[in-house]
């Protein structure tokens, strides 16, 4: 072997031992007739000492940054110990070295505080992966992967692979499609998730399935999206919602315990979708802090202030201890909500002073008693700041939700090392699309309605009232997992497809394989899928899932290192019987 030990293995107990190491040159520091080199591998860094007797060898066979080096020598105690690294008490007194491979000067520094920008580092991702910060992210990803696998194995789950080349059944995001050479003019699709396949495994009797699996969606990208991403995909038979919540709450608790040392035996809070939307303005509430949304219908309307009186919704948050905000700070917040991403016309406020008086941006229309009513409705105390928005209901609620999170960030309430999870349940089964002029599945078309509301599936006028047997797990304001109890009877599945505007023929063409399977004794079943990349990012304290993927794509969906996607040659196009038509 090229080495007897790794660069993170040796300690003071190894003093005097003859060893051989191999790795990459991190830094070179010359001090007169001696040279210090930091040698790095996956496991750590070890300092090398080249004494005066090695000078001639270094002159004849010089080394540089990122050279691949093999060294032999004795372990000795360092005179200037480094407590910041695990090998900081020792160094290797080099007696022999071999340059296994030289290196060009890298395009950026291979260290945590690198001088390389995103595009440059993505182009040379194989170099970026050498950095300790990136290595720690991948180590965390692997650790979480192992914890999840061990937990699911201990609970009787079986890891079963499903195919990547499947039938296109677009319902949601766009599919990535793959042309078939052997079937000209026909295409496979890459799975957005193994949803129907894992349901078929339930029909086959594999009652506890899981897979840590790649999924593909052709959609617009952002920090927490990639065209290919990884799910912890799970399904169970002969279960009800409570069984699934119990098993997978246990899984996330195990991850939090092993990774973050959090031993919380209390059940995760439960919150209905309706309550989440009312109190937080979204269905993935961050419960690390309060600042709930308050409807000011009674306290704010009817006072002659058109902004409030003509609005569908007047909603507020009370920001603790910010009643001393300056006009400049309030103007800056107003500019923030006017940004295109938020899209509001303005922001009203009430300052609750410590002397129990009030100052508002609409004093002309409200007296002191009426401002006190607003403060009481919001639960504001002296010294608090009340922020108010008014307008169309959906847009205003969403905007206030974003402002709440922004204030949480500004006040340091969204602590990266604090983790709070909850379940959101009782989602609507359908949502109406004004653009498409039809009802659409809020989750997907295989989600079952609540048992007591199955009869409403034949009454379109009541579709908006039907609740789904669905649930999401939320961690620190991020949906990390979502699932449902599935439809398992052919008749109910046909009703669902019909409600979504799908003809019997279209349903048969797209999902005939599933409905056919339901005729052969499909068991009651349900499941959940966790966003594995997102879970890793949250536990790693990052906003971007790209930091936890070995070879990610950029925001345009390009692999900068491989320069993909790319054109294919004419011979391949001819074999596929595909013609590229240029505009």
Key features of this structure:
single chain; alpha+beta; BirA Bifunctional Protein, domain 2; Gyrase A, domain 2; 3 domains; eight-stranded mixed beta sheet; five-stranded mixed β-barrel
Question: Could you explain how this protein is built, in words?
Answer:
With 583 residues, the chain is of the alpha+beta class. It has three domains: 90 residues, Beta Barrel (OB fold (Dihydrolipoamide Acetyltransferase, E2P)), CATH 2.40.50; 213 residues, BirA Bifunctional Protein, domain 2 (2-Layer Sandwich), CATH 3.30.930.10; 122 residues, Gyrase A, domain 2. 28% of the residues lie in helices and 24% in strands. It has an eight-stranded mixed beta sheet, with helices on both faces. A five-stranded mixed β-barrel has the order 1-2-3-5-4. The chain has a five-stranded antiparallel beta sheet with strand order 12-13-16-14-15. Strand 2 and strand 3 form a beta hairpin. Helix 4 crosses helix 6 and helix 4 crosses helix 15. The chain is globular, with a radius of gyration of 30 Å. The two termini are 58 Å apart.
């Amino acid at each position: 072997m090229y080495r007897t030990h790794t660069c993170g293995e040796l300690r003071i107990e190894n003093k005097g031992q003859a060893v051989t190491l191999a790795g990459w040159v991190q830094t070179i520091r010359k001090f007169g007739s001696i040279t210090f080199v930091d040698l790095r591998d996956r496991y750590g860094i070890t300092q090398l000492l080249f004494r005066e007797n090695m000078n001639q060898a270094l002159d004849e066979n010089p080394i540089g940054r990122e050279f691949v080096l093999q060294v032999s020598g004795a372990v000795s105690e360092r005179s200037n110990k480094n407590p910041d690294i695990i090998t900081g008490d020792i160094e290797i007194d080099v007696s022999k070295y071999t340059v296994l491979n030289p290196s060009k000067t890298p395009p950026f520094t291979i260290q945590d505080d690198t001088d390389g920008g995103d595009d440059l580092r993505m182009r040379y991702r194989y170099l970026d992966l050498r950095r300790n910060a990136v290595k720690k992210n991948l180590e965390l990803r692997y650790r979480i992967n192992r914890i999840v696998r061990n937990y699911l194995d201990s609970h009787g789950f079986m890891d079963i692979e499903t195919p990547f080349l499947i039938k296109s059944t677009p319902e949601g995001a766009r599919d990535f499609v793959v042309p078939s050479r052997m079937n000209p003019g026909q295409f496979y699709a890459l799975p957005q998730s193994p949803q129907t396949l894992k349901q078929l495994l339930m029909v086959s009797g594999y009652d506890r399935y899981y897979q840590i699996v790649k999924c593909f969606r052709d959609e617009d990208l952002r920090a927490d999206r990639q065209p290919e991403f990884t799910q912890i995909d799970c399904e169970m038979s002969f279960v009800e919602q409570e069984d699934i919540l119990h098993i997978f709450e246990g899984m996330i608790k195990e991850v939090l315990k092993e990774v973050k040392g959090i031993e919380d035996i209390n059940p995760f809070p439960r919150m209905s979708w309706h309550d989440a939307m009312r109190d937080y303005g979204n269905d993935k509430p961050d419960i690390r802090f309060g600042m709930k949304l308050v409807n000011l219908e009674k306290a704010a309307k009817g006072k002659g202030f058109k902004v409030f009186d003509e609005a569908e919704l007047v909603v507020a948050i009370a920001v603790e201890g910010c009643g001393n905000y300056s006009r400049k700070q309030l103007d800056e917040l107003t500019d923030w909500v006017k940004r295109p991403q938020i899209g509001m016309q303005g922001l009203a406020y009430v300052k609750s002073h410590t002397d129990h008086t009030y100052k508002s941006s609409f004093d002309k229309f409200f007296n002191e008693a009426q401002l006190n009513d607003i403060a009481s409705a919001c639960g504001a105390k002296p010294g608090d700041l009340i922020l108010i928005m008014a307008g169309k209901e959906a847009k205003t609620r969403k905007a206030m939700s974003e402002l709440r999170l922004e204030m949480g960030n500004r006040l340091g309430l969204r602590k990266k090392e604090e983790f709070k999870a909850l379940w959101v349940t009782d989602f609507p089964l359908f949502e109406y699309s004004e653009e498409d002029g039809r009802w659409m599945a809020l989750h997907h078309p295989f989600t079952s309605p609540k048992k007591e509301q199955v009869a409403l599936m034949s009454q379109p006028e009541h579709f908006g009232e039907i609740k789904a047997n669905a649930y999401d797990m939320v961690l620190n304001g991020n949906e990390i997992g979502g699932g449902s109890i599935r439809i398992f009877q052919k008749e109910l599945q046909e009703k669902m497809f019909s409600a979504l505007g799908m003809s019997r023929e279209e349903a048969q063409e797209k999902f005939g394989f599933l409905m056919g399977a339901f005729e052969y004794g499909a068991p009651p079943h349900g499941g959940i899928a966790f966003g594995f990349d997102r879970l890793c990012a949250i536990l790693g304290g990052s906003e971007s899932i790209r930091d936890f993927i070995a070879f990610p794509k950029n925001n345009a969906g390009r692999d900068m290192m491989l320069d993909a996607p790319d054109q294919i040659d004419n011979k391949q196009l001819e074999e596929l019987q595909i013609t590229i038509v240029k505009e």
